[in-house]
Amino acid sequence: xxxxxxxxxNNRRRKLVAQYAAKRKKLKDIASDLxxxxxxxxxxxxxxxxxxxxxxxxxxxxxxxxxxxxxxxYRKLKVCRNQxxxxxxxxxxxxxxxxxx
Length: 101
Prior knowledge:
Blueprint: H1 4-32, H2 38-50, E1 73-74, E2 79-80, H3 81-90
Antiparallel strand pairs: 1-2
Helix pairs in contact: 1-2
């Protein structure tokens, strides 16, 4: 199980990303629009850099929903490899069976 503080920190980041998503998108659109004057694009970049660092979506770490483990994460199921194996062995994942040959 991951540290509770790491999981809480990641959840705070998710909330910040959701809170600032519209503002970040608007500023990024302005900054990347080449038809606008350079000063306006530069001002948009400055405003973007003044937003909280954790409001960027790239700061979010994919973590297992059950244990909080950050490595070996399966996006489709939102669990780590260890939990995937346990759930598959218990027959809790539809369509997944333990291989045998």
